[in-house]
């Protein structure tokens, strides 16, 4: 995979069409706003963000990047969706968020440009949207400093994940636009762990993320059968 071609034009178009709704907490992006405190707290508990140089790969409209900057990190958010990045930049200006910048560049290209430059790298809800997730994992490993942390989150590939994350979330509860996820692109934890090991990342911790549709409550657990997060550290 080259530094420029690991993307799906249809996926970029999908999120670009919704770009103006990134910061609407009642929009299609409501789930991301709801889970962000969980993701942020988990990352900060393992790799305290204050004073760290952080890269957010696949930052979209900047929900996580913005919150990490507010924790005192120096954050660079990158994405290939132009409209989403413009929304992220506008929000940073309107919210007076210091310590966050955004660039339209792929992880692979940035890895060539700035290898070993970041204390923490995050790549959340992004791997299931690219043709070659292992290429992104390899780039994240190249971008982080030795001893630094790389965090991933994605969706498992099994019958339960299909039922909950696709049928339930997209077609029954209408939490996400239909077609947001393709089952064949989902990634089993064992597959992601293998990508990490091949890239020189040591798996530190795995957590699942669960959701109760009645209470609209999210929480972290040991159940990785649907949504899950991985914390890794560079050798």
TrEMBL record:
Gene3D superfamilies recorded: Vaccinia Virus protein VP39
Q: Which reaction does it catalyse?
A: a 3-demethylubiquinol + S-adenosyl-L-methionine = a ubiquinol + S-adenosyl-L-homocysteine + H(+); a 3-(all-trans-polyprenyl)benzene-1,2-diol + S-adenosyl-L-methionine = a 2-methoxy-6-(all-trans-polyprenyl)phenol + S-adenosyl-L-homocysteine + H(+)
Quick one: a GO biological-process term for this protein?
A: methylation
Q: What is its EC number?
A: 2.1.1.222, 2.1.1.64
Keywords for this protein: Methyltransferase, S-adenosyl-L-methionine, Transferase, Ubiquinone biosynthesis
Q: Which PANTHER family match?
A: METHYLTRANSFERASE, UBIQUINONE BIOSYNTHESIS O-METHYLTRANSFERASE, MITOCHONDRIAL
Recorded metabolic or biological pathway in which this protein acts: Cofactor biosynthesis; ubiquinone biosynthesis
Question: What is the name of the protein in this document?
Answer: Ubiquinone biosynthesis O-methyltransferase
Annotated positions binding S-adenosyl-L-methionine: 39, 58, 79, 124
GO molecular function list: 2-polyprenyl-6-hydroxyphenol methylase activity; 3-demethylubiquinol 3-O-methyltransferase activity
Q: Which InterPro entries match?
A: SAM-dependent_MTases_sf, UbiG_MeTrfase
What is this protein's function? O-methyltransferase that catalyzes the 2 O-methylation steps in the ubiquinone biosynthetic pathway.
Keyword Lyase on entry: no
Which organism does this record belong to? Polaromonas jejuensis
Gene behind this chain? ubiG
Similarity field: Belongs to the methyltransferase superfamily. UbiG/COQ3 family.
């Amino acid at each position: 995979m080259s530094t420029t071609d690991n993307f799906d034009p249809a996926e970029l178009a999908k999120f670009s069409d919704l770009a103006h709704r990134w910061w609407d907490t009642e929009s299609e992006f409501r789930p991301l706003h709801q889970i962000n405190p969980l993701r942020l707290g988990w990352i900060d508990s393992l790799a305290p963000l204050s004073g760290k140089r952080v890269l957010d790969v696949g930052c979209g409209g900047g929900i996580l990047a913005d919150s990490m900057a507010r924790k005192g990190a120096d954050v660079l958010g990158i994405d290939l969706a132009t409209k989403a990045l413009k929304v992220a930049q506008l929000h940073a200006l309107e919210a007076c968020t210091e310590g966050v910048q955004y660039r339209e560049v792929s992880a692979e290209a940035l890895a060539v440009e700035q290898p070993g430059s970041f204390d923490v790298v995050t790549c959340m809800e992004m791997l299931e949207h690219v043709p070659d997730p292992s290429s992104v994992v390899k780039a994240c490993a190249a971008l982080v400093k030795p001893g630094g942390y790389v965090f991933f989150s994605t969706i498992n590939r099994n019958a339960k994940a299909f039922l909950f994350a696709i049928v339930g979330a997209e077609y029954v509860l209408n939490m996400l636009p239909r077609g947001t996820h393709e089952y064949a692109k989902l990634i089993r934890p064992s597959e992601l762990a293998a990508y990490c090991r091949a890239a020189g990342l040591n798996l530190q911790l795995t957590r699942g993320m669960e959701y109760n549709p009645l209470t609209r409550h999210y929480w972290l657990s040991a159940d990785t059968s649907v949504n899950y997060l991985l914390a890794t550290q560079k050798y």
